[in-house]
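Hi U.,

Before I forget, here's the chain from the pilot set. I'm dumping it here mostly so it's searchable later in email.
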Amino acid sequence: MKRSKNKQIIENFIRKFDLQKAIGKDLVEYVELHSFERDEDIYTIDEKPDYLYFLVSGKVKISMLLKNGSRMLMRFSIPFSMLGDLELLNDYTVKTSVSAVCKSDCFSQSRNTAFGKIKIQHPGK
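Structure:
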């Protein structure tokens, strides 16, 4: 995985997906762009994710490991998909494998910044 805080690239994706209102100026400063190469794991089974991802380019596959050791493809995700939200919100470990089908870029927010800010803004959640 490669990380970038290049504001121009991030702002281009924000405009492409019309996210100015959804992300807000105060959260944009915490956004990083994480780039994954083909077949690179984004999440692996039984890990606790540290990042919430928003797929902004490329394609990822989500698969489940079966008891016999083989993998079952569950689905593909394309931009603009959210990855890791249930695991982070509920403090779960990852139950499915998520990997890049081709070069894929994701907005990322760490567990602490993304959900810390949301909880401050919405303390009842």
